[in-house]
Design goal:
Chain lengths: 295, 123
Amino acid sequence: MSRPELQAPAEFYYGDTEAKKYTQNTRNQQIQASMTYRALELLNLPTSSPAFLLDIGCGSGLSGEILDDEGYIWTGLDIAPSMLEVALEREVDGDLFLQDIGQGLGFRPGSFDGAISISVLQWLLTAPTSHHTSSPPFRLKKFFTSLHSALKNPSRAVLQFYPSDDDQIQLVTGIARQAGFGGGVVVDYPNSNKARKVFLCLFVGGGMSGGPSSDSQQVPQGLQGDGDELEEEGKVKFEKRRVSTRDRNANGKRKSQKVIDRDWILKKKELYRKRGKESVPRDSKFTGRKRKPTF
Amino acid sequence: MVRLITHNILACHVKGCTSNNFPLQLQGVQIELREAEFNPEFLKTFLPKIEWKALVDTAKEARDTSLPLEQPEMLDDEFLKNLHHVLLEIHIEEGTMICPNCKHNYPISNGIPNMLLAEHEVG
């Protein structure tokens, strides 16, 4: 299936059903959560006082919940009314706004201590209508200039997004530079197809890197490796074969490959419970025991 | 769920509306009070960003007169408690925000303000 941002504008794509699906999908929740934590890490906020943050494209409040947990006071913007409704139902603490970020943000200068945005910018890279104010460069420019002024100096904005090619990254970073931002792109797990994540790490002023006096704006390092949940393709097959040859016992016969022991059963049951499956038997001391032979 | 802390940093962003576009006036508002965690450190760091007169005026529109007209030099506990109440516990649920300059209406329904502009207002 093609990418969601190519199918319809965000406010239509995330209708009532899609908004529910998006929020209830546990895999999606996990990915959003890990990206939010990573974005907060890249924000590099001072720990001394709780910050006032902007969540751009807050959606149903998946990232907002984490901001609540971490003790931040925040304001969220989104263009999809259905997503905001879900956020209201979930009772997040932040203020919610129905706003098109491509039209610019209406905040007084220097209001926010930082901004995060998870999986949003790619929506700005398609044109919703043919009007000249709808072209991606125009909307990006509006967004970045108004964001730059809404942030205090020094501060940072971390925006995770899914660019479809390098040209899009160049377009976005180019316009962000024009708007006055420093910084650049941080790519986590660059060698992996699935776990690869692109963060646009933007600095206002010094960006708090090494004190206000230093003018070197060091972009943080991206995470290396292939991501935890990812199997390394190619390598895995080879490993498996070696392990299985070692598993042969003294007679040269193979042991059964699947060992269904107590740990394995407990793990599976835990997984089913997490997925919300009903009638998973409870754990007891008898779990995973062999029956006595009947004769 | 517009709290007054957010209202205080909100300005009109219609095309060409660059001066006198703050604060947005409230009209026909319904208020809801919701308790929030008291956090004096946050208030102290946020205090310099507040437009004091705008906050006092808005609080009056929301029928709360606990704040002094001038921002006090000394931050005692009672003042911080009042400030906390005004900034973080007063939620605007329904009503309209009107730009004092261009008279653009931003309707608030179900606690969510609609900040969308028409195409000719974007610029």
